[in-house]
């Protein structure tokens, strides 16, 4: 393990060298991030998943720098140009751009204007001019030969050589890089004739902003428009400032030679330095914008995956439709399909009565506890129809976000699960299962298809996949899964498993029946000791041989808990069920070289609430009555809504009109800004005030600043209006908003990313 990597990582993350070294060791031994963060707290000093993930990323980055440095040193050494000073410079830098600057003069070149001039014998003239010792340009006449027709051609060739020297000067590039960092602007203009095609980008037709201050969504919007041929853009500081900086370093004299160097410097900047640095800063700006957009997407995905589940209950799921009817399925408490059919509740004839009769029959026959209605086309009308039915018992009706359900229904996973049914049935099943357990169902869908990010198709797809996969792994392991009911798709995300071992577990279940204890995992084909160590604590067994198997306590600590129980003169189940027995335990009495206080405290918390689900409890939400389409919405209305997406510039809210409205960040209330613990979250139920409606462009502008100031849902505010106590509305606790404050607690992470890239 490279000691320099340890020092760099500990410095960048603000942790001790021992924390960095121990974590890197665990990662190199094959331990996963969830396992390390939960079961190796003493070793890492309680680093969380984000910190451990950053260590993993930085370790890879510095390994890449090492590999590149090794190649560069080898190349320069083979050229017999390596010096102790040059070697020291190469070994001191850990930034790839700086490494490439040092290497540039030694990098094998293709034919350039400078190499052509050198071949013509003009390098001595370039050296004379570059020294600026009152060299008269008449000296150029002595370089006229068969390849150089005139003194002006000789001077031009010499300037080409000087321009390349300036371009390859690491000090000059470093100074210009700082100038770009501090003053470069991103400027965009519309391509002539593309004004109509690029109407949605019209804000950027004549646009300029300091690059270092630009938010990620604007950078990505301009780059997308450029890719579509609507805009062309540039990144650069003021040209006069750049030329002055170069001249200050290289123009050291006066007279004819200095004039030639000045011309060469201007050419070097325009032809070589600016394009190179512009490409570099464009890449950095894109990388920074990608990182921020991916961070937003990842946090949204986390919130969506950890959405409140209904739990193991019977559900009727409805995929709404007008002309083709509503596809319905009945699911048992594990999400297994029991029946499917098509109803036409939105047709005003006998079919409506038939639909009601069938739903009543199914509700009784399949012990239905809830009905899930997809929020797509005809969703609101179908929901209203179902709510009016008297089932003779309480059956809650939930609107379920069906984003990505069509992707699942046409996927290989869905075909494998339901080979005899078409996509419409599979889609309805997915809607119902999302209500029962969102996490278990959503892991079957490519996260990008869920649609909870911004510019997800424009960012680095490999970085996006890596980040989203980490989120899914984190969420699945945070919740834990039932070893005897989980699908192979869910099991695959458990620490230490993966698709192959997950499939082997499912196969073992089919051949041998349900697992009765965690140790039986070792009988699964190819599941060795390391995989068992990594996965066992995240797998749950209900009603098994050992009650600890239905908890997050790792099997490696079972003997410790047994020892605790013996000292309390009770059984392990007694210890888990009786608070007074646990309170008598002093965790400090059990501290050892293997087990520290942090782990012992976690164990006692888990014994108190074994297999606790970290997700919230599900709650019912209702849209405002009479609001079904954009034409029904008027400025000033106060409406209930559900947050469907969060971006760096605001939150999107579904108010039940098939088109989400935008609450710009400047219209969020203090509740969602000042307190990270109450920050706006995905699936959160909120009250919004309608600011503007643009039906033609399908845009709704909303505010959360003063949504509770008056009017019932769907009503306009007026001076005499008072708060309405309608039970459909969520109580408001927010205060007037401050302007343009952070949208969410993960904005702090975005600020940290910005600082990293600025640095």
UniProtKB/TrEMBL annotation:
<dbReference type="GO" id="GO:0006412">
    <property type="term" value="P:translation"/>
</dbReference>
<dbReference type="InterPro" id="IPR055179">
    <property type="entry name" value="Tex-like_central_region"/>
</dbReference>
<dbReference type="InterPro" id="IPR023319">
    <property type="entry name" value="Tex-like_HTH_dom_sf"/>
</dbReference>
<dbReference type="GO" id="GO:0003729">
    <property type="term" value="F:mRNA binding"/>
</dbReference>
<dbReference type="GO" id="GO:0003735">
    <property type="term" value="F:structural constituent of ribosome"/>
</dbReference>
<dbReference type="InterPro" id="IPR012340">
    <property type="entry name" value="NA-bd_OB-fold"/>
</dbReference>
<dbReference type="InterPro" id="IPR012337">
    <property type="entry name" value="RNaseH-like_sf"/>
</dbReference>
<feature type="compositionally biased region" description="Basic and acidic residues">
    <location>
        <begin position="717"/>
        <end position="738"/>
    </location>
</feature>
<protein>
    <submittedName>
        <fullName>RNA-binding transcriptional accessory protein</fullName>
    </submittedName>
</protein>
<dbReference type="Pfam" id="PF09371">
    <property type="entry name" value="Tex_N"/>
</dbReference>
<dbReference type="InterPro" id="IPR037027">
    <property type="entry name" value="YqgF/RNaseH-like_dom_sf"/>
</dbReference>
<dbReference type="Pfam" id="PF17674">
    <property type="entry name" value="HHH_9"/>
</dbReference>
<dbReference type="InterPro" id="IPR010994">
    <property type="entry name" value="RuvA_2-like"/>
</dbReference>
<dbReference type="Pfam" id="PF12836">
    <property type="entry name" value="HHH_3"/>
</dbReference>
<dbReference type="InterPro" id="IPR041692">
    <property type="entry name" value="HHH_9"/>
</dbReference>
<dbReference type="Pfam" id="PF16921">
    <property type="entry name" value="Tex_YqgF"/>
</dbReference>
<dbReference type="InterPro" id="IPR032639">
    <property type="entry name" value="Tex_YqgF"/>
</dbReference>
<dbReference type="InterPro" id="IPR006641">
    <property type="entry name" value="YqgF/RNaseH-like_dom"/>
</dbReference>
<dbReference type="Pfam" id="PF22706">
    <property type="entry name" value="Tex_central_region"/>
</dbReference>
<dbReference type="InterPro" id="IPR023323">
    <property type="entry name" value="Tex-like_dom_sf"/>
</dbReference>
<feature type="domain" description="S1 motif">
    <location>
        <begin position="636"/>
        <end position="705"/>
    </location>
</feature>
<feature type="region of interest" description="Disordered">
    <location>
        <begin position="704"/>
        <end position="745"/>
    </location>
</feature>
<dbReference type="Pfam" id="PF00575">
    <property type="entry name" value="S1"/>
</dbReference>
<dbReference type="GO" id="GO:0005737">
    <property type="term" value="C:cytoplasm"/>
</dbReference>
<dbReference type="InterPro" id="IPR018974">
    <property type="entry name" value="Tex-like_N"/>
</dbReference>
<dbReference type="InterPro" id="IPR050437">
    <property type="entry name" value="Ribos_protein_bS1-like"/>
</dbReference>
<dbReference type="InterPro" id="IPR003029">
    <property type="entry name" value="S1_domain"/>
</dbReference>
<dbReference type="GO" id="GO:0006139">
    <property type="term" value="P:nucleobase-containing compound metabolic process"/>
</dbReference>
<dbReference type="InterPro" id="IPR044146">
    <property type="entry name" value="S1_Tex"/>
</dbReference>
